[in-house]
Amino acid sequence: MKIFLTMLTGILSMPFSFAQLKTTQICPTFFVDVLEGTVNERLFTYAGIAEIEKIFPCFTSTTEETNGSTCGGVFYKDKDIYFYTERDYIEVGEHFKGKLSLPLMGASRNSLFNQLGNPKIKDVSWDAYQTKYGILILYYNKAGKINKLQFSNRNAESIKLCE
User: Among 62, 66, 88, 111, which is most buried by a count of CB atoms within 10 Å?
Assistant: First the structure.
């Protein structure tokens, strides 16, 4: 009887013995240098999907690039950073989980002159700054605090943003 129960237990547990262990992808900390236009000193705004996924394998989604009509890229929604590879810009949201070279998130609109100078273009809810690599666009909430930034190697006349 003991042999029968042992064999029965072994047969019933056999399907569970083939389970595979899966590892969780671990990403390095995101470090955005807004003055140099880089992420972790290795990724520029014109980096490709494969390059980004290799350095940061924990992406939440990707969208393939087409002929410029879509917003292809690599997206890290849980980290609030988005690489729009098809349009060559990077977006950082207010819930960004990483480090910025300048503490811009939450900064007052009136406190940026010492770090960034005068904006090239001003609007009610955003400012665009000319940089050595292209353009830096800062968005403001109703209280006049930065809640999103975008940067690109393109200039103000040629950048095409996604909605």
Answer: 88
